[in-house]
Amino acid sequence: MMKEKKWMYGLLAVLLVAVLISAGASLFTVRAVQQMQAAQSEKNETTEDNVPIMDGTYTIVSTRPISDAYQSGQTGNLDSKQKEILSMASDVLSSLLKDGMSDYEKEKAVYDWMTANLRYDSGALQVIPDTQEDADNPYGALKYHNAVCVGYATTFRLFMQMMNIECMVVHNTEEYHTWNLVKLGDDWYHVDVYSDQNGGNYASFNLNDQQMHQQMMSWDLSFFPAATGTQYNYAFQNKQDVDSIYAIPGLIRKAADQKTPMLSLKLSSLDDQQLQATQALLNGVDVALSETEAYAHLSVQRSWLPLGSNDYLLALYLSYPQEDDPEFPSTLTQEELEKGCQSINDAFGTHLDWTNLSSDPVEDPFDTMGM
Q1: Taking Cα atoms as reference points, which of 240, 239, 224, 143 lies closest to residue 191?
Q2: Directed axis angle between helix 248-257 and helix 272-291, to 10°?
Q3: pLDDT in tens, 225-255
């Protein structure tokens, strides 16, 4: 009996030591993980400027020296490129701003100008090396109308700073995309001009955090200010009441026929069943558009915003195909096309005809706008 007790006591002691060791190891592991996380956080401390985007391909650069020079009228500290940026940006604002405009009206005027003008034009083809080099800053955006998302964001911020409107450049957690936060009144709003390029349908204009998250974006919420406003959201300002969800397809058809960029609908007192029915209706509209030749190239983006108890704002952003995009073959002469085909035939032993190069639109070979 005594031997059995000793054996049991020994087993308990071993188990106790094992538990203590395990607990200590767990405690050490937790502390180690916390220390590593803190070190990583310190190493990757979030900043607004000097952030490499797309594995260092582009960089967010400060626009404050230029906006400060605009405010003070003192340009002595600017280099030649910064002075040219200041001149181009000043000309744009001179054409847009009118006496008595609110900050929101100024912001919207800049958004409308950027979505209408910042795209490739034929003049950019003559200066490709420079456009590529400056695609991530206001110089490329304003001089060549050639910019990636970083160029859009820094240009928008420059305009806002010049007009004394608080604005920041935001980068997502994975550091492959940038957009802006702008302060209107007491609230901050997200603005992603790049995502609305060539459309200008306000799908990414003055969104709150909830709406921005619907666009599958994440960012450092502890560094960048929270965007909670709705007052200056374009869809919120232009909402219309809808008595029945079954009126939605007809409203979308009417908006499409009129080429309306945005349709904002206030839906009241929707229970879960009605929400599901609304989603089914919208899915059905997508199918109908794709199967109808007149609307096959029309895309409709959705955004939901809760307004209160069972009330919702449904924003529908309509994107239409661009009819005025340049087709590069139209600028080539028949002689150039024939010589091109002959060089291809000589190199590969093929029998192409020059019409092969001119029958279909050619993609812009210098398009870097896909970021």
Answers
A1: 224
A2: 40
A3: 999 999 999 999 999 999 999 999 999 999 9
Q: How far is CA 44 from the centre of its chain?
A: 23
How far is it, in rounded angstroms, from Cα 223 to Cα 216?
A: 19
Provide, for the chain, the percentages of residues in helix, strand and coil under a 3-state DSSP scheme, each rounded to the nearest 5: 50, 15, 35
Instruction: At 147, list the tokens.
Output: 């910019």
149-203 confidence digits (pLDDT tens)? 999 999 999 999 999 999 999 999 999 999 999 999 999 999 999 999 877 899 9
CA distance 267 to 190: 24
Q: Which two tokens mark 154?
A: 């820094």
Other C-beta atoms lying within 10 Å of the C-beta of residue 103: 17
Q: Is 198 helix (H, G, I), strand (E, B) or coil?
A: coil
State the pairing for strand pair 262-267/240-242. Answer: parallel
Which residue type does 138 have? P
What's the whole-number mean pLDDT along residues 288-314?
Answer: 90
For residues 174, 178, 183, 186, the Cα torsion angle rounded to the nearest 10 degrees is -20
User: What mean pLDDT do residues 85-111 have?
Assistant: 97
SS3 54: coil
Q: What is the DSSP letter of 33?
A: H
Tally of CA atoms within 13 A in the half-sphere of 48 that contains its CB:
15
Name the maximum alpha-carbon separation found in the chain: 109
* Contact present, 159 and 107 (Cβ < 8 Å): no
